[in-house]
Amino acid sequence: MRRLMNRLLAGILIWGFAVVIGNGYAHAKEIAVIWVGKSLMTNNLVMGFLPRMRELAPDCKVTLFRELKDLDEAGKIFRECESKMDGIVFLRSSGAEFLSMNKPRGPCFVGACNNPADLGAVSSLENPDGMVTGVTYFVPYAKRFDMIKSLFPAVKSLLLLLEIGQSGGPIDQAGTSDECMKRGIAYQEVFASNIDELARKTQAAGKVDLIVLSNTRLVRDNAVNLLPIANTTKTPMFSYSAGPVKAGALAGISTDDFKLGQMLADSVVDVVVKRKPVAQVPVKMDPNPRVTINESAMKDFGVKFPDAIVNSAIMVR
Fold it and tell me: Is residue 26 pLDDT above 70, yes or no?
């Protein structure tokens, strides 16, 4: 799937990084889209963003600066674009953090990121009072735990797995631990910098009712390597993103990245084309996060989830 998304993006690129939407007249608005590193989530969001921009603002010119090496390179491009572009989309949590430390002079937008208020890019999701708005894959932790309790009503303890140094880690840590405290669930956590450390610490943590996979890269990308631990201890894994469920986690809750890309385009057009003040364009969230269930894992663990959830979930094997 990652290769397909990359090929699709590459297929619409013109002159390296430029995607020209519409006729490119001199008066056309110009938008830069920047992100650091490779990310399937980001690719999916962009694949929703570009067609929606073409539909809503066919005269806009959108230039992609994709999969940049690091924030230093991205920062140089940002500063160049800030003086000549009508708007800048800076994707991923690293982009939101950059905007929190480099207050933009013109309209900027975030996406494919955790809660931008927690990352410091906006003062609030509902009323951003600076020059930044956009979309976020953030799902309120109360909603996540409502789903956890619906799927695992007897859960009394859980272990949250996190990656050291990932910007989304502290957000997942605080939100999960707070919700556990409110619901009387015993909370443990593991921070690791590589898969060997993550597996070792997970195994050493002891028996819990549920292993929760945070939406950090190390954890998200290594669910398959954690399966032997989960299967040996008969501990189901619940994920804050969809990818690990396809790799063997029992269930998860996540947003629709393609839909968020469309919603991001709506916000960009509102601000850049229709000249709506940024403060009047809230940061958007997916109103209906998707539940993904691994059918094979469900059989292996011998569990039966409520029909109402199963019938509306994305089922994978």
Answer: no
